[in-house]
Specification:
heterodimer; B: 13 helices; rod-shaped; disordered C terminus
Chain lengths: 167, 313
Amino acid sequence: MTATRAIRSSDAERLQGGRAGFVSRVAADGIDFVVVEVIYFGILLGIAVVRFLVTRHDFTIDAPQLWVTIIAQWFIIVMYLGTNWASTGRSVGKIMLGLQVLRADGDGLTPRRAFIRAIFCATLWLSLLWIFVSRRNAALHDVLLHTKVVYSWRHPDAPVGTHTLSS
Amino acid sequence: MPDIVTTDSRVRVLPAGPPEGVVSLSRRVSDLGLGAASIGVGAMIDAVERFRPNGSSERHREPTLLREMARAATGMALVAEERAVNVAEAMELGAQRAVVVGSQMPIVRDALVGFSSFLGRWSARADVEQARRRAETTDFLARMIPAVVDAMIERIDIGAVMQRVPLAEILGAVDIDAILDQVDLNEVLNHVDVGRLLDRIDVEQVVDRVDANALVQRVDVQGILARVDMVGIVAEVLDEIDIGSIVRESTGSITGDAVDGARVTAMRLDGFVGRVADRVLLRGAHDRSGLPAPGDGETQPTAPSAPDAGAHP
């Protein structure tokens, strides 16, 4: 997307590849949460359309019960984050904030590690608060799964430490 | 059968039938003379009537009398001419017959032949002399006529003459279209040397005299635009410009700058929040990014160096 554009801020340029802090990661997670809500609403809308076409009743979008919503959204979060992290290490929110999820040694996540991390995040999202305690901006799931979230504005697939700032 | 009259130098063939004699020639001459005399007399009488000073009524009747007299004289002259010509014709016929008869007798024939040769010599000389005089007369007329015409032109008031010419009527009667239909303009234009014509035209002077504003006001711009395929032209221009790439670049640059701004803000807040947390946890200031410090370039060659690293202690 913006892979060929130069980074103008010298601060940002210096911090590329560095571990991201609490604000960036929460902002990215907030955007991802909005995306998940949109996906969930789309699913409800699709169900309503199908039901309207099949049963000939009035078109209404039913609000599911709370536990249904929680379980459904938990499932959507796991699938959404797991697939994104397993492929590029980036979800929509992380793309917008210029973040990337990597293994602690700088490689990309395997699908198994990505989905375990997604399950962990979706279940225990408060583990993010461990960032404050950690000396290296690591959340609890980062510590347990040996992952990290870094600033990576430009080269989505380049491992940390070998990226070029501009071409 | 034509009769053959031999002379010393040539043979003359006379046509059969009544010969074209002196009498018939003189008849034509007298006819013409009488006609001319009649016209001249008429013109003179007209002049007398026109330029007659305003006099008595007695003088006023004179032209009528004159006219009657002239007509009577013409009639008498015609009758006299007719009779004289008849007599002359009869005499000529008789003479011709006498010559024919005489030419059949030996002695008379010799005499006639001698006489004929005598006539031939003199007529030849007359021809020569006549030719010389004709040449002189022609030369004289050639010099005199231009002088006379010049003198006449000098005395003619062309302006007054032109005023009396009904030019409008003449032009109204002329069918220009019919004339132009008969003119092959292409043929005419083939004879025109346009290059030389243009060399003689002072274009600057012509342009100075042209009122460009008036000219432009008369141009139907709307009509011209209506005939122009603007949609086609615009489509062609857009094809050349590739608006899409321009929009992509510009909007990409704008949104990219906005996104980068938000990212930088988030980065600074990360640093700020991290420092606050460290302070709350009573830790010393340290770098949470996991990147090597600016001075550790030997162990981490890829570490970027920045002069404002103090923002992230």
